[in-house]
Design a protein that fits this description.
Helix content: 25-40%
Order of helices and strands: EHHEHEHEHEHEEEEEHEHEHHEEHEHHEH
Number of strands: 16
CATH architecture of the largest domain: 3-Layer(aba) Sandwich
Radius of gyration: 22 Å
Strand order of the largest sheet: 2-10-9-6-5-3-4
Number of domains: 2
Distance between the termini: 25 Å
CATH class of the largest domain: Alpha Beta
CATH topology of the largest domain: Aspartate Aminotransferase, domain 2
Shape: globular
Strand content: 15-25%
Number of helices: 14
Amino acid sequence: MKAIPYGRQNITDDDIKVVLETLKSDYLTQGPKIAEFENAFANYVGSKYAVALANGTAALHLCTLALGVNEGDKVITTPITFAASANCIRYCGGEVVFSDIDPETYLLDILKVRKLLEASPKGTYKGIIPVDFAGRATNLEAFRELADEYNLWIIEDACHAPGGFFTDSENKNQTCGNGKFADLAIFSFHPVKHIASGEGGMITTNNETLYNKLLQLRTHGIVKNNDLYTNSIELAGGFDEYPGWYMEMQVLGYNYRITDFQAALGHSQLLRADEGIKLRRNIASTYFNAFKNAFFVIGQSGIIEGNAYHLYILEVKDRLNLYNYLKTKNIYCQIHYIPCHLMPYYQDLGWKVGDFPHAENYYKQCISLPMYPTLTSDEQQYVIDAINLFYSEKY
């Protein structure tokens, strides 16, 4: 059997065609393909605005900047996520406050977040960054109610969940990133994600003020708009009006732009997004049925309506030996994630083993199985058979 990774991009002839067309066009960056991708993505998730960026980490950083995170500001997030979900707070000098996960969902436990907020005076915390981990949508309606009670903003880290949704109290499906409950949401277009553009990210929002801040921060803090200039026309070098070349850097921004050919690839991939979600859910269903009665499975992702299934996770006995065994069979699973609070950087800030028992226990048992739309039924069965064989021989 050829190598089977835990995730893999799917680049089609149509994808290659649009990239080549863009490479032959007049614009490699700052051209029309970026706005086309942004508009299509906003329409896909149901938000008013979308801002395309160089990667998901850049998206998180600009979100914290736009929301005004400053030195010492406390922001709550989950320890079971990629480090960028927490690091973006540190980029602004803020203080990361981790809170434990719900062991059934693997998501940030809202009850524990509430206890954390209740233990301090109102105003102690500035915001919450829940993560739609593995593709399972966080109930942002509940988090919004809690956030409003304590005057907090919300950044939804939806990198794992484009096309995912949760069902609200009115029995309506709320798509990840639609901006109804979170102030800002972010996505990633890394090759193992649902939509791959090599690198790339997106912020979605319904807030026009935040949207305009993001546009400015994305490109060095520069504006090119007569109505926004603060220098005089004379200083700018004009007489009756600002000259055509004029621009102003008004805040300290960054070069977090995405290229036109990446945006063209992302847009092309977006056209197949619903098909990819359907295939991922079929794969998840097969895994669930294969392992629902297995003695060695402690927990698994399961079949959850609205789950976008970036990952399919098993919690298993003897995880290390299984991981190594599968490698000998050319099956390359992955572990998502080493808890952030146990990374040496965060331990140096005071976090330690034992702080979050559910997250730490999950880490000891979790393994992410191959999950991508082009995984064939034969390949998936090979993975299932290999796992069953390992445990039948060992036990």
